[in-house]
Design a protein that fits this description.
Elements (H helix, E strand, L loop, with lengths): L1 H26 L1 H4 L10 H10 L10 E12 L3 E12 L11 E10 L4 E10 L5 E16 L4 H5 L5 E19 L2 E15 L13 E14 L10 E11 L9 E12 L5 E14 L7 E2 L15 E2 L1 E14 L2 E13 L11 E13 L2 E10 L2 E8 L4
Antiparallel strand pairs: 1-2, 2-3, 3-4, 4-5, 5-6, 6-7, 7-8, 8-9, 9-10, 10-11, 11-14, 12-13, 14-15, 15-16, 16-17, 17-18
Helix pairs in contact: 1-3
Length: 389
């Protein structure tokens, strides 16, 4: 109900903002009849103008930044209040051909004791010769753990409660090596602590406190027309991370991750987005670094971490349709699974996923999204910024 209210409120901003000038003129008509000075807009007018103009490009600004906050509801975090802020900037204002750099700050707090704060973005150097992709976030969350493996996640009654404290930081520094090809080094740090649980056996002997330091590289082919809401192009990204003992890791392991995203127009106002994701871990993998899906980006509708193992694959097809002004809708369908290694992947273990969502253009090509995902044995509401992929 709260999520539906917020979606309706966002939709009404455009309509009300168009009416507001007339209302304002009526209110001040008497005072301004003999006054050549135009009165200042009242608070409501300025507030509505802020959202009405938020998605309009401001080429004269070196840094264009807007903030949005409000209540939300999700199946995992229950009732909460979230704040998201999106900004675009250009290191060189005269370089209008290169996609602008973007940064998003986000925070959340909910009635179940969940709180989150983070920042992510893409810094694009002039002429897009170099890029820095970064993501840093921290959360504390009283959540559920099903153990390791497909069979453990299949039984909804197999969950045990625990409190997770999680910190993640990653940065990739990429150089353009040829046209749309980029490559460069990557660093990653993850801290995870599982506490306040009555079923330690669910972790199958794995340490409940982990600090992971990773180093590696990334090879990427990118022809997307936009980073936050692509409408055309391709993204192929292959990442390799190593977490050896000499970096301070208690257990040595590594992983390979592949992302393949395709975007194309079908008809006026539509975008068909296809996303394939796969991750394979090798060695002594901590529980927090196991491959998984669910949450706000992959296989939406599944509780994030319900299914986890050394390997994971998922595929999603999403139709995004612009409807009216700054409003749009999406529908998607997908499938995915987890498994200990590729030789033990079974088609009968493929899990279904589908859903529907609402989009409101907060800033140009940056959407606030509200998704309702359906999964096997559960559903989830999601409120976030930017597209899922």
């Amino acid at each position: 109900m709260v999520t539906a209210f917020m979606a309706h409120a966002l939709e009404m901003v455009d309509t009300i903002a168009d009416v507001q000038p007339a209302l304002s003129d009526t209110i001040y008509a008497t005072d301004t009849a003999n006054d050549s000075i135009k009165p200042k807009r009242n608070f409501i007018g300025r507030f509505l103008d802020y959202f009405k103009n938020a998605n309009k490009p401001k080429e004269y600004k070196k840094f264009d930044f807007s903030v949005l906050g409000g209540p939300h509801f999700s199946s995992d975090t229950k009732l909460g209040i979230g704040v998201v802020a999106a900004g675009f900037y250009r290191p060189n204002l005269s370089d209008t051909l290169t996609s602008p750099s973007n940064v998003s700050l986000y925070g959340d707090v909910s009635t179940v004791g969940f709180y989150l704060v983070g920042i992510r973005g893409n810094h694009i150097f002039p002429k897009d010769n170099r890029r820095i992709d970064y993501n840093l976030y921290f959360y504390s969350f009283p959540r559920k753990f099903w153990g390791i493996g497909y069979e453990n996640g299949l039984d909804m009654n197999n969950a045990t409660k625990f409190n997770e404290i999680y910190i993640h930081a990653s940065v990739d520094y990429l150089w353009r090596i040829y046209k749309s090809f980029f490559a460069g080094p990557a660093l990653e740090y993850t801290y995870a602590h599982a506490g306040h649980t009555k079923d330690v056996a669910a972790w199958q002997g794995l340490p409940m406190h982990t600090s992971t330091y990773g180093i590696g590289g990334r090879l990427q082919y990118d022809t997307r027309d936009n980073f936050t809401a692509p409408q055309s192009g391709v993204l192929l990204a292959l990442e390799q991370r190593f977490s050896p003992k000499f970096l301070g890791n208690k257990y040595a392991f590594s992983y390979t991750e592949l992302k393949a995203y395709f975007y194309t127009h079908l008809w006026k106002g539509s975008v068909l987005a296809t996303g394939f994701h796969a991750k394979a871990n090798y060695g002594n993998v901590p529980w927090a670094m196991m491959a998984t899906f669910g949450g706000s980006n992959t296989m939406r509708g599944y509780y994030e971490g319900r299914f986890r193992d050394k390997c994971e694959m998922d595929l999603t097809l999403e139709l995004r349709q612009h409807v009216w002004r700054r409003n749009g809708i999406v529908v998607w369908g997908g499938a995915g699974s987890v498994f200990p290694k590729f030789s033990k992947f079974h088609f009968r273990h493929i899990l279904p996923n589908c859903g529907i969502g609402y989009r409101w253009e907060f800033k140009q090509r940056t959407n606030v999204r509200i998704d309702y995902g359906l999964a096997r044995g559960e559903t989830a509401f999601i409120f976030s910024i930017n597209e899922a992929f």
